[in-house]
Amino acid sequence: MARTGPIQNKIMLLVCLPLLIWIAAFELLPIAGMLVMSFQDDSGQGFSLGQYIRTFTSDIYLQAIWNSLKVALISSVVGIIIALVCGYAITRLSEGFRDRMLMVSNMITNFVGVPLAFAYMIMLGNNGAFTLLFQKLGLESLSKFDLYTENGLLLLYIYYQIPLAILLVYPIFHGIREEWKEASALLGASAWRFWRHIGIPMMLPSILGTFSILIANALGAYATAYALTGSNFNLLSIRIAALVSGDIFPNFQLGSALAVILAIIMLLAMFLNEWMTRYSRRRGL
Amino acid sequence: MRDSSKPAVRRKEAGPTIIIAVLLLYLFLPIVATFLFSIAKDWQSSILPTSYTLSWYGQIFSDPRFLFAVLRTLLVGVLTVTLGLAVMVPVIFVLAVYFPKWEKLLQISVLLPFAFPPVVAAIGLIKLYSGGPVPLTGTIWILIAVYFILIQPFIYQSVRSSLRTIHAKDLMEAAEVLGSGRMNAFLRIILPNIWSGTLVACLLSFSMVFGEFVMGRMLVGGEFETVQQYLYNAMKVSGPSASAVVVTYFLFIFLISGIVLKLGKRKPKGYLAHPKPGGEDQ
Predict the structure, then answer these.
(1) Strand pairing partners for B51?
(2) Per the count of CB atoms within 10 A, which of A228, B8, B12, B81 is most buried?
(3) What is the DSSP string of B3-68?
């Protein structure tokens, strides 16, 4: 086998070159550029921590960070709880149904951003079908629900978190063996006690991992909130976009600082996921 | 892995069925509402439309602006996916078969878009490519360049698992023992056997390109109107025609998901499942 010499092997690595150049030009360089800009002053000069100081001393930007975290946390918690219940229900279905449910979930994960915001406006906007229905039924409090507020935004975020959460949570249930249930039933445990003391604790690391993906998913989202009310929501992603491509005079340095903060939170979420995956693998799940 | 769904242990339970029915209702409600809106002739103050029409569909499909938006998005999709496959498939193959140690690097690169979502990544891109030696913003080229980055995960996942399914390494060794050149073996043995995975990657990438809004808006804006930009603009002008766009988009996604599912179940001829239960990949 003459052709498997080490030099020929190395030559094969040349196929990686176009990819490396591409990644460098459109992924690494822009990220590096953003990092550099975040440490510059408003005129794009020098080295300063000014943009970060400004962010952390400004009520608006602190509130944006807080709002983003809050919306991400609430939508992820609600999303994952619903997904756990539904994911379990899916495992109890016949195989054909299971596949179809997963396909539906997969399909609905594409229903985000502008189309989703629009659909909710049709249902719950000022003249929406459900708004009218609630009015006719005399449900005052429901008909007064304002979609264009934080609660409305939460409703949309929860909607798009659920199918993704189901796709991520569903495989976790496969780690729970039927033998464990049988064993605990033989020892006299109820179904509730099985899940309380064995099932849920076993699944917890994977659930936390999924949770961190959902958090990142919500934090990075921009299109849904933007399509709903333009730049009116004070979210981190909305602020960043407004600073670099909005109607106001652009400030790339401040936008970069906000973007770096967002990226750091996202990276933390991803590390948590990675760490949790490893942890549950070590436990043989 | 043990299948937890053996029919023997399973009784017909009402609970799960009800939960799933509620879930389906909840998930499809916005889509049904949009559909009703798109075929409503008059839907102002009543709960359900009073009369129906298909004229909104007629309107968008005879609107050159919409058709051009679809064509532009298709063009971006085709170019991005073609380039993406041409660049990535050989890399995934070479790393998987000959340099497994280096695969970790590719995995990290594939994960980067998740850590840096479009709204974050766009800042550096705008700064680097508007003006300067390579002014790309506002053109189709910047979209192709960044969508390439965004579809990497789909291509990597689908192609990698196809290679695993066909035991690419063993196949290559066999081909080489029988005297075939590597290039020849790759083109005539590996490629024809991973086409279903590659097709899945194409379709997922396409649905990503058709659903992408942020990069399009921040990097290109009005100069190159894609489907999502068109939808965003239509939404502000005419609700019913925007809903016809949404329903059309959804049908497109539905079609793609269906094909992906069908392809995902296909196994190459003579396929033998991994002896290891569970496999390395979920």
Answers:
(1) B42
(2) B81
(3) -TT-TTT----HHHHHHHHHHHHHHHHHHHHHHHHHHEEE-SSSSS-SEE-SHHHHHHHT-HHHHH
Chain B nearest-CA distance from A118, in A, is: 7
How many other CB atoms are there within 10 angstroms of residue A27's CB atom?
22
Distance to chain A for B269, nearest Cα, Å: 22
Backbone angles phi, psi at B40, to 5 degrees: -85, 135
Q: pTM for the whole thing?
A: 0.87
What is the C-alpha separation between A148 and A11, in angstroms, rounded? 58
Instruction: Please indicate whether, in this complex, the C-beta atoms of B16 and A136 are within 8 angstroms of each other.
Output: no
Cα–Cα distance, A270 to A253 (Å, whole number): 25
The low-confidence residues of chain B, meaning pLDDT below 70, are 1-12, 43-47, 266-282
How do B40-42 and B51-52 pair as beta strands? antiparallel
pLDDT of residue B131: 79
Q: How close is the nearest chain B Cα to the Cα of A167, in Å?
A: 12
* Candidates B10, B88, B246; nearest CB to A115: B246
B117 and A237: CB-CB below 8 Å?
yes
The residue of chain A with its CA nearest to that of B179 is: A1
Residues of B in contact with A127 (CB under 8 A): 44-45
Residue B74, pLDDT score? 94
- Contacts with B, A 248-277, CB within 8 Å: 252, 255-256, 259, 262-263, 266-267, 270
B51 phi and psi angles, rounded to 5 deg: -145, 160
Best of B119, B139, B256 to disrupt the A interface (most A CBs within 10 Å) is B119
Cβ contacts of B83 within 8 Å, gap of 6 or more: B144, B148
B147 in Cβ contact with B249 (< 8 Å): no
The H-or-E segment that residue B271 falls in is: none
Q: Give the pLDDT score at A95.
A: 82
Q: What's residue A209's pLDDT?
A: 84
| Chain B contact present for A123, CB below 8 A | yes
Distance from C-alpha of B211 to C-alpha of B204, rounded to nearest angstrom: 11
d(CA A113, CA A223): 5
B122 contacts A227? CB cut-off 8 A: no
Contact criterion met (CB below 8 Å) for A114 and A227: yes
More reliable by pLDDT, A127 or B250: B250
